[in-house]
């Protein structure tokens, strides 16, 4: 019943094997490439000590644990959920219903198989939706926690449109958490991996090429000021900014160069504890989680 309440059903969406879809997604060049590829298996990566996902996910779960100690949500929207490393966390650790949105059908199918295998009850709590995040078939004011981790920057010049769409869906008292690739981090990543010319090119284009399973994706690099402006333009008040440390990228860089590989494996868990302890002092961010709301109120934790 809750699914019918949040869905706007007049846009040609229908249920195909448990996933609401129009059978196509119209989007930019990133979306076109993501549609053709299987999408990253984040769940497997999270378990590889030394991988970026291993560290980033520990940080994300840490923030979510803190948030849900003093916050409850009836309906959560997981934007660009991928194969659901956060959707599954939300299922296991909160009582919320969850709308999981992604353009990649393969990722949504993996997510579906994973939670269905875990518990029959989970199917009732998840609405899987294949669509473009700039045009989500959900009602206004229908979700009280909107989570967008490392997905909006793929919208490139439509970033503001994405924030606009999430703001439309967010309830008046709800909480939006969006997290996108940091500008300075992108420049440093290009310098480390490709040299000074690539760094200067990234500064000119504001884009970071991301070679991967999907082909060459482009990530829009955003300064924290740009993100604050995009939120402000939608009358969203930023209550707190939480860093996702760039140190995870440095560790996976060493790994990719075959340096300290055994040590990284051995000390990954200890390093995670250290990074979590340092979070309040973190200055060099891979990305920043912006916690915002339509109503002015205190920090979420
Ligand atoms: C880097 S992954 C992050 C996945 C997930 N948020 C997580 O943290 O595990 C980005 C995800 O955003 C999705 N995505 C990118 N652009 C999108 C768009 N315009 N509409 C819907 N999904 C999109 C991709 O398919 C991919 O699953």
TrEMBL record:
GO terms for molecular function: S-adenosylmethionine-dependent methyltransferase activity. Keywords: Methyltransferase, Transferase. The keyword Methyltransferase applies. SUPFAM superfamilies: S-adenosyl-L-methionine-dependent methyltransferases. The keyword Ligase does not apply. Transmembrane segments: none annotated. Residues 77-177 form the Methyltransferase type domain. GO terms for biological process: methylation. Pfam families: Methyltransf_11. PANTHER family: METHYLTRANSFERASE (PTHR42912), N6-ADENOSINE-METHYLTRANSFERASE TMT1A (PTHR42912:SF93). This is Methyltransferase family protein.
């Amino acid at each position: 019943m809750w699914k019918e309440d949040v869905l706007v059903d007049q846009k040609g969406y229908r249920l195909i094997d448990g996933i609401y879809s129009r059978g196509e997604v119209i989007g930019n060049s990133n979306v076109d490439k993501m549609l053709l590829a299987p999408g990253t298996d984040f769940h497997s990566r999270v378990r590889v000590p030394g991988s970026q996902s291993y560290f980033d996910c520990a940080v994300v779960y840490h923030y979510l644990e803190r948030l849900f100690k003093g916050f409850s949500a009836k309906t959560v929207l997981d934007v660009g959920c991928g194969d659901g490393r956060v959707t599954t966390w939300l299922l296991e650790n909160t009582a919320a219903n969850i709308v999981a949105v992604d353009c990649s059908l393969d990722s949504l199918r993996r997510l579906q198989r994973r939670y269905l295998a875990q518990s029959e009850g989970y199917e009732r709590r998840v609405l899987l939706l294949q669509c473009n995040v700039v045009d989500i078939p959900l009602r206004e004011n229908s979700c009280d926690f909107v989570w967008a981790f490392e997905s909006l920057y793929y919208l490139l010049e439509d970033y503001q449109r994405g924030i606009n769409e999430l703001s439309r869906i967010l309830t008046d008292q709800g909480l939006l958490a969006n997290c996108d690739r940091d500008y300075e981090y992108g420049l440093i990543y290009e310098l480390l991996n490709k040299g000074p010319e690539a760094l200067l090119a990234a500064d000119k284009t504001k884009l970071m090429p991301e070679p991967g399973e999907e082909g060459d994706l482009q990530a829009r690099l955003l300064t924290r000021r740009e993100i604050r402006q995009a939120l402000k333009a939608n009358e969203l008040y930023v209550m707190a900014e939480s860093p996702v440390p760039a140190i995870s990228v440095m560790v996976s860089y060493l790994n990719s160069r075959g340096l300290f590989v055994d040590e990284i494996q051995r000390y990954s868990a200890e390093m995670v504890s250290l990074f979590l302890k340092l979070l309040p002092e973190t200055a060099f961010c891979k990305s920043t989680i912006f916690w915002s709301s339509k109503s002015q109120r205190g920090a979420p934790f």
